[in-house]
Amino acid sequence: MIRNFVRGFDNALSFDLCDSLIEWFESSPKNVRIEEPNRVSRKDKQIWLPENSALYEPVHKVTMDMLREYLEEFPYAYRGAKILLTPEIKIQRTNPMGGGFHNFHAEITHWENCARALVWTIYLNDIPKGEGETEFLYEKIRIQPKEGMGCIFPATWIYQHRGNPIHTHPKYIITGWYWYPEEPSLP
């Protein structure tokens, strides 16, 4: 039997912090950066949370707690390689009726991001059942977004995933990656 390495963390982030992140996001027109405009609907918005934001440190702590718990279950994900948390925390809103990128994809797609080890996502709001799930192609798993719920999974091609369409409410997430550290160049 094949075991999957997708893990959910109920109530990883407090509801108050989820609400504060959404409020900050909606009031912050600056720092908008869409990495691949052809892959993200113009109706969607992505903002990178600045490290000097009062919201950054509590989110960082939660993501490290999730990683610690994940590595307790899968200690060999860490052996032989140090996994670091990227300093970047992306907040994203996907709008109903046409927003989002619904094709299956992996998080390692190019040499520039091949050092990604694991992906983390935290849902900032509830979405009605049957909408907005994170679906994993090969694992046949669908994760229903629940406010404060975190998720970690490997960044590799085996974990092809997508955000399924939403029809009634915007979907808010924060997401980022745990990276393998860069090795010094050989002489």
Describe this protein's structure.
This protein is an alpha+beta fold. The chain has one domain. It is 16% helix and 24% strand. The chain has two helices and ten strands. The chain starts with 6 loop residues before the first strand and ends in an 8-residue tail after the last strand.
Question: Any descriptors?
Answer:
single chain, 187 residues, alpha+beta, 7-stranded antiparallel β-sheet, 3-stranded antiparallel β-sheet, 10 strands, 24% strand
Total separate domains: 1
Low-confidence stretches: none
Give the count of helical stretches.
Answer: 2
Summed over residues and divided by their number, the pLDDT gives a mean of 86
Oligomer: single chain
Inertia-based shape: globular
- Helix percent band: 10-25%
In percent terms, what proportion of residues is strand? 15-25%
Q: Which sequence of SSEs, written as H and E, runs from N to C?
A: EHEHEEEEEEEE
Gist?
With 187 residues, this protein is an alpha+beta fold.
Write the layout of secondary structure elements.
Elements: E1 7-9, H1 15-26, E2 45-48, H2 56-73, E3 84-85, E4 90-94, E5 116-123, E6 134-136, E7 141-143, E8 150-154, E9 161-163, E10 171-179
Antiparallel strand pairs: 1-8, 2-4, 3-10, 4-10, 5-8, 5-10, 6-7, 6-9
